Amino acid sequence: MIVELGHFALILCFSLSLLQSVIPVVGARQGNAGMMASGTWIAIASFLMLAVSFASLTYAHVASDFSVGNVWENSHSLKPLLYKYSGVWGNHEGSMLLWVLILGFFAALVAAFGVNLPPQLKANVLGVQGWIMTAFLAFIIKTSNPFDRLQPAPFEGKDLNPVLQDIGLAIHPPMLYLGYVGFSITFSFAVAAMLSGRIDAAWARWVRPWALMAWIFLTAGIAMGSYWAYYELGWGGWWFWDPVENASFIPWLTGTALLHSALVMEKREALKIWTLLLALVTFSMSLLGTFLVRSGVLTSVHAFASDPERGVFILAILVVFIGGSLTLFIFRSSELRGGGLFAPVSREGALVFNNLFLATAAASVLTGTLYPLVLESINGSKISVGAPFFNMTFGPLMMPLLLAIPVGPLLSWKRADLWSAIQKLYFAAGSALVIGILALAFVEGTSVLAALGIGAAAWVMIGAFAEIWLRAGFGKVEASTAYRRLKGLPGSTWGTAMAHCGVGLLLLGIVSVSAFQQELIKRVAPGEVNNFAGFEITFEGLTPAKGPNYIEDVARFKVSGRGVIDLEMLPTKRLYTTRKMPTTESAIETFKFSQLYFSLGDPEPDGSITLRAWWKPLVTFIWWGPVLMVLGGLTSLADRRLRVGAPKRAASRRKLVNA
Amino acid sequence: MTRKQKRLLGIGSIGAVLVAAIALVAIALQDKIVFFYSPTDVIVEKKVASGQRFRIGGLVKEASLVKDGKRVSFIVTDLKNEVSVKHTGILPDLFREGQGIIAEGILDKDGVFTADTILAKHDENYMPKEVAAALKEQGVWKDPKETQ
After folding, report:
1. Residues from chain B contacting residue A604 (CB–CB below 8 Å)
2. With contact defined as beta carbons under 8 Å apart, do B55 and B102 qualify?
3. Same domain, A590 and A468
4. CA-nearest residue of chain A to B16?
């Protein structure tokens, strides 16, 4: 009954989306206030319907109702409770339902909190959200209904893929979808602006918080996914340039570009057309990602059972939305008037530089991701494009951008002096140089390349705070005045510094792991002692154990060294009994920011086992960096100036006087 | 500089970055991609140049797996032809005899494939797409979904 209620709510929501697609948009055309306002209520109502639908599917999963096909295929009565919840979206149908739930959530947010939006813009935005919602609900109801019943009902489920039975599944997909789908709002804003033919600085001010919010979630989602893959797959790698990873990374790159270009548009009314295009492209790339993952054209851990009908359907959605929005763009963009002029060397110029490299990098990642599909459809050759391709293309494109990070915020708007900006960075440049040289001289095994990398990371991290340092006036005014000014600096300035510093931290983690990682692969017998990376590792033997829905062999290791004595590390080999699927659970121990990582091969009949151990210095910076970026984004989002409408001139002048 | 010159300089430098990027991508697409071949492609059709890095895929031949500590060797077959593969390291969890796998590496002069990466499927009822296609080409494998 509850399951049928969910199915019914989903269909009801489809009808509501049809209304939402038409009524507010027509109202905006005719200037009918009532019709425009109806969008608000329809959006909130359809989100409630989706919530009911999602809750009833969750109920079916938690109650292990195997008469529902989706539950039968992805659950088991013995599955731990957390995975009964997260298993709701650990499959194709459920994850699509989560996708539309989040789409509805964002539309409801705009409906509820977009009170200061002009009614016409708001009506159009909600209308466009309705179009997307209609398309994806049709997809779910037609090809991927999670509420299909089985007759007769089986007694037991087939269990969830063991790789997905992890806390990571509870967090990673919702985060990633909040990011992916969050960019639908900027897309809707862009289409709405083109429908009304008006776009100005105010538009950028409304769009930027949404773009920032989506970016925060996408950053967190990608970083979370990377850490999950790192510990769960047992390969010790944190990024594989897998097509599905790329599918989430491309919108991140264009979304990051969008954040920066919207800034120019908001402050200077320049780059309007480009910002509009980025808003369209970013969500288009999210749709492309959804298509690549959900259609099954790719071989990947993310590709659940594939069905050609689904692929064609999503492809059609993709073509309509990307093609339609770009066509509209071509016809409308010429009518938009360009804005303020600026010199090449200026804050605007620096942000154009940022956008140029981010967009080019996104295009090169896109090329590498799609090339195998294109080549196969042209001449049938099967190829894989992996890390070597991306290291050669993406790496060089990122370097100039990284080095420019500290300089950008020091350039003034309109016209700036590059040389004086660089001079102001003498401290960051000097420290980076010293740190690089120290690493080369005192850290064993540092190559020149690694020293350059460490220096670059230090430059980015220290330089990120140069703007704050200079604006507070340290060294120029009394320290107490400087500290007071520090407090008065807007949240967005702090946010920028933190996010930029996070990029440097990420770079440091990457350089450190690639330069200093140590690896040991060895077959070890019980009682055997090995010395590795400053540790003494004793293998004590294998112990069988039993979990709720698996049996396992626990390999017991005692580790001493680097400040620990007889630390127990317990990697295991598991066999999930329902699916007869073996997995390896790695054991990871964190030493400040570095990690010792144990993975296992198959046990041998004589009780020995192959140990694969890595020492990964400063590896956690790879995830602390994004954490800092997310915190920076949140700090910036908390800045009042972003949330309220136009900045009040008088107020900002008063602030200056007070300072 | 006049405004026109400035604009030219701006467009010129953007153009230069784009040209450099396109050149990088073009070179990388020549050198850094890895082709996938079946044992038949390798042995009968001789598609592989010497020293070329490529991926080979097929089924692991029954009773061909030999383990010596961390050194392993096995035979990959598409049921028409077969190639010996050797590898140092840990095999994926779902590596089993009779199952589809993909190995990446280089073919040496004796016709033994030295793999530095071995990929198996991600779940128990899934065959790497390339392997399935290669087996279909040999007419020896049918998609269980299609036969149901």
Report:
1. 67
2. yes
3. no
4. A356
Contact status of B11 with chain A (Cβ, < 8 Å): no
Percent of the residues in chain A that have a pLDDT greater than 90, as a whole number? 66
Check: CB of residue A391 under 8 Å from CB of residue A240. no
Distances (CA, A) of A641 to A201, A508, A635, A637: 14, 33, 12, 9
| Neighboring chain B residues of A581 at a CB cutoff of 8 Å | 93-94, 123-124
What distances in angstroms separate CA A549 from CA A81, A262, A285, A655, B106, one per listed residue? 12, 50, 38, 62, 40
Average pLDDT over residues B99-111: 87
- Where would I find the beta strands (DSSP E) of A313-466? 383-385
- pLDDT at position B142 over 70: no
CA pair distance A252, A629, nearest whole angstrom: 13
Tokens for A125, please give them: 């935005």
Q: Which one of B27, B93, B133 has the shortest CB-CB distance to A584? A: B93
User: Residue A522 and residue A613: Cα distance in Å, rounded?
Assistant: 9
Same domain, A121 and A138: yes
Are A284 and A146 members of one domain?
A: no
Which two tokens mark B81?
């032809």
pTM above 0.90, yes or no: yes
How far is CA B121 from its chain centroid? 13
Q: Rounded mean pLDDT of A133-160?
A: 91
**Which two tokens mark B123?**
């779940």
Closest Cα of chain A to B74: distance in Å?
16
Q: What is the average per-residue pLDDT within A305-333?
A: 85
User: Is A472 inside any structural domain?
Assistant: yes
Average pLDDT score, chain A: 90
Range of the domain at A144: 1-165
Distance from C-alpha of A582 to C-alpha of A569, rounded to nearest angstrom: 20
Mutate to test the interface with B, among A158, A298, A377, A383 (most CBs of B within 10 A): A383
